[in-house]
Amino acid sequence: AQIVRGAEEIGRMYKYDILLSSTYGDLEQEKKIIDFMFTKQVEGIILISEDIEPEVIFKLKDQTVPYIQLDKFWNIKDVHTVQIDYKEAMINMINHIYDLGHKKILFVKENQDTEIGQEKLKGYRQACDDLKLEKIEISSEGVSVKDGYEAGDKIFEMKDSKDITCVSFSEDAQAIGFINYCYDNNKKVPDDISVSGFGDIPMTSIYRPTLTTVQEPYYDIGAVSMRTLVKVLKENKIINEKAILGSQIMKRESVKDIN
C-alpha cells in the first residue's frame, strides 16, 4: 500500500492518472491485465509482485512501454527495479545485534533461490566473518508466519546445542510466527531468546514485544519508481540500472542488551 501511495502521489505531481489493478498472484490474470493496460495505451507500468513469473516479464519486454518491476523475491536478472542494498542492510543488523552483546546469532534463511534472499545471506556471512563469529544457519520452508512458527522446535534445538542468544530472520513474518511459537511454549522474547526481522511491516511496531527489524522504505520505492518512469517519458532516458535506496535499523524491544 505504501509503494502504491508513493507512486500515486508523484504521478499526480506530473499530471499522470494511475490505473490500479490486482491479480492476487494469478498468472493468467496478470497476463490479461497487462494486455488490458496496453489497450488503454498506458505510458508506463509499475509491476508489484511477491513472486513474478518469467512469462510476465517476457511479455513486458516484448512491448515498447517502459516498466519497473518491484518484486520482493525477484529472481530474474536484468530487471528494472528500485530496492535497498539487502546485503549491507543485513550486515548492519548483525552488527547492531553484536553491539548488544550477542556472540551466537542464528540466521533463518529463505529456502528459495531468490537474489534478495541470497544477498541477505551474504550479508549475514560477511558480518560473521568481519566480527569473527561462528556462522549458524537453518533454512525455513518459506517466509510466512506459519513457516516461522514451524521453525520453532529446530531453533530451540540449536539454542540448546549452540548457546544461541539471538535469532535473525530473513523476513518479518517469519519472526512474528516464531514469537507466536515462543508464547505458546512458555518462552519469553527477549528474555529467553532475542529476535530480529527484516522489512518493517506494519505489524512489527504494534506486536508485543515490538520487533527489531530493517526498515524498507516502501513509500520511497514507489515514489522513486514513478520519478524514474517520468524521466524516461519526459527525457527519453533509458532505464539501465537498479536504483538503490537507504535503509535503517528499527531498534525495538525484541533484541535484549546482554552486555
Q: Helix fraction? A: 40-55%
Distance between the termini: 39 Å
Query: What structural class do you assign from the helix and strand content?
Result: alpha/beta
Rg over CA atoms, rounded to whole Å, is 20 Å
For the largest beta-sheet, the strand count, sense and barrel status come to: 4 strands, parallel
Task: Tell me what the structure shows.
The chain has 259 residues and is an alpha/beta fold. 43% of the residues lie in helices and 15% in strands. It is built from nine helices and ten strands. The strands form four sheets. A four-stranded parallel sheet has the order 5-4-6-7, sandwiched between helices. A two-stranded parallel ribbon has the order 1-2. Helix 3 links the parallel strand 1 (45-49) and strand 2 (67-71). Helix 1 runs parallel beside helix 9 (218-235). The chain is elongated.
Short characterization:
This protein is of the alpha/beta class and 259 residues long. The protein is built from nine helices and ten strands.
Keyword list:
single chain, about 260 residues, four-stranded parallel β-sheet, two-stranded parallel ribbon, alpha/beta
List the helices and strands and how they pair.
Blueprint: H1 2-13, H2 27-39, E1 45-49, H3 54-61, E2 67-71, E3 82-84, H4 86-99, E4 105-110, H5 115-131, E5 136-140, H6 145-150, H7 152-162, E6 166-169, H8 172-184, E7 194-196, E8 213-215, H9 218-235, E9 243-245, E10 248-250
Parallel strand pairs: 1-2, 3-9, 4-5, 4-6, 6-7
Antiparallel strand pairs: 8-10
